[in-house]
Amino acid sequence: MKNYFKVKEVFKTIQAQVIDYPNVTGIEIASLKKDGVYTSDLCIRVLVNSENVTIKDLNIPESIDGIAISVTYKTIFPQ
């Protein structure tokens, strides 16, 4: 498992960048999924309420310091 403190720092960086984006519903630290299997590595997931929002739309990188970042469609509250 990658250093949890490093992941928390990347989390804070991404959170500051996307917190005001209208389609962002949350941000989470999660297990990285590779080839359909969850690994012991951690990643950052930005949760959005539209299937059309991409990582490019949010203007964030796919990774920082080796920590993967992804955008996942997931609504927290019913729309």
Can you tag this structure with a few keywords?
GMP Synthetase, Chain A, domain 3; 1 helix; alpha+beta; globular; 19% helix; 79 residues; 41% strand
Describe the structure.
It is a single chain. With 79 residues, the chain is of the alpha+beta class. The chain has one domain: GMP Synthetase, Chain A, domain 3, CATH 3.30.300. The protein has a four-stranded mixed sheet with strand order 1-2-4-3, covered by helices on one side. The protein has one helix at residues 4-18; strands at 24-34, 37-48, 63-64, 67-73. Strand 1 (24-34) and strand 2 form a beta hairpin.
Short description:
The protein is of the alpha+beta class. The protein has one helix at residues 4-18, and strands at 24-34, 37-48, 63-64, 67-73. The N and C termini lie far apart (35 Å).
N-C termini distance? 35 Å
Uncertain segments: none
Tell me, briefly, the overall form.
globular
Mean pLDDT: 90
Topology record:
Layout: H1 4-18, E1 24-34, E2 37-48, E3 63-64, E4 67-73
Parallel strand pairs: 2-4
Antiparallel strand pairs: 1-2, 3-4
